[in-house]
Amino acid sequence: xxxxxxxxxxxxxxxxxxxxxxxxxxxxxxxxxxxxxxxxxxxxxxxxxxxxxxxxxxxxxxxxxxxxxxxxxxxxxxxxxxxxxxxxxxxxxxxxxxxxxxxxxxxxxxxxxxxxxxxxxxxxxxxxxxxxxxxxxxxxxxxxxxxxxxxxxxxxxxxxxxxxxxxxxxxxxxxxxxxxxxxxxxxxxxxxxxxxxxxxxxxxxxxxxxxxxxxxxxxxxxxxxxxxxxxxxxxxxxxxxxxxxxxxxxxxxxxxxxxxxxxxxxxxxxxxxxxxxxxxxxxxxxxxxxxxxxxxxxxxxxxxxxxxxxxxxxxxxxxxxxxxxxxxxxxxxxxxxxxxxxxxxxxxxxxxxxxxxxxxxxxxxxxxxxxxxxxxxxxxxxxxxxxxxxxxxxxxxxxxxxxxxxxxxxxxxxxxxxxxxxxxxxxxxxxxxxxxxxxxxxxxxxxxxxxxxxxxxxxxxxxxxxxxxxxxxxxxxxxxxxxx
Length: 484
What we know:
about 475 residues; mainly alpha; Sodium/glucose cotransporter; 20 helices; about 0% strand; globular
């Protein structure tokens, strides 16, 4: 083991200690046996922590590993597409977060499936809706979590000089520990530390690229490889028409506003938090991280024959960064991927231990202490399940698998989460919309060659129409404050 590998291990172990310590501190802030503290951080997140966890979760492995791979394969269109996430997240914070937050606080909702059930009347039908929402959330976010674990495992393996399986086990193990200890508070606090490192890494990477290559030569080299890289005639991978890339903006807005692992952050912020401050922090951090896909184009110029586009970022770090800087930046990128992985794991565990439990049994049947124990046990079990899924999954492109999970979940949830905030539908409308959105988007992503965004957005349209249409034909009830 050389000096730089020892340096990398030292960095990793030091930061692992910090993350676990933050998990321990956040666990001390929760009241004893307080399940709400585990699920929504006791609604205690301030402006900067709220923004930090939103941006870290939204960009993360997708931004640092997936997007450079897509840019390597398809060119500059991915740089434009990735840029839309920052303004979309800011719009979601400024114009949607308060509606969702106030309604959830009024009903006492601690998860998004619980919010869906309570906002559609609660009772027996509400429990069915909550159970179905939880099941869809678990299945689809486990798919996305599989891609995140593979991403962090690949990068960690090359960085530390170990096997993929060993790296994935190491990274997932630490995520399980601090998420289990502190719940969403631990996730948010560690995300905020991570996103500061991610922003610093983005600055270092952009400075290195712009100071090491002549822009005119860069352009000429890319045009010689493939003119489509800088002047695309299609919108691939987002659709056939070049304008398809602009669909990223509405997709990214709904991504931030509707997906359970993103929207839960709105429920976890302090009721009195100034959302315009959150929006400013989101815009600044998001703008910095939006530049990362340029790495893929840079590597394409220097290494045009990579067999696996997802190796663009590891190859960049290995060949174009000083070993010490490579170690530090790799650590920040691992932070990025962990920030989404821990959020996904927390959401999947909450859906399993909280929502499925409440859909099957009355809340009074389980004490608060037992519920908290079950929540923490679910983190451990589902973390291991996701690791096993990654180990035995067939080959896949990281970004595609991420959109398969998040896009299908978005199509399932848009009616009962987003539309219901402004127009209240029925429980039957919510149930049918989730199932129709799931089937429509899942089919288009797996079997129809329509681009990465057309499937999810088509699923959103069909699901929304179904939500409104079925709701108009069935009895509607106001939201319930009582347990479902």
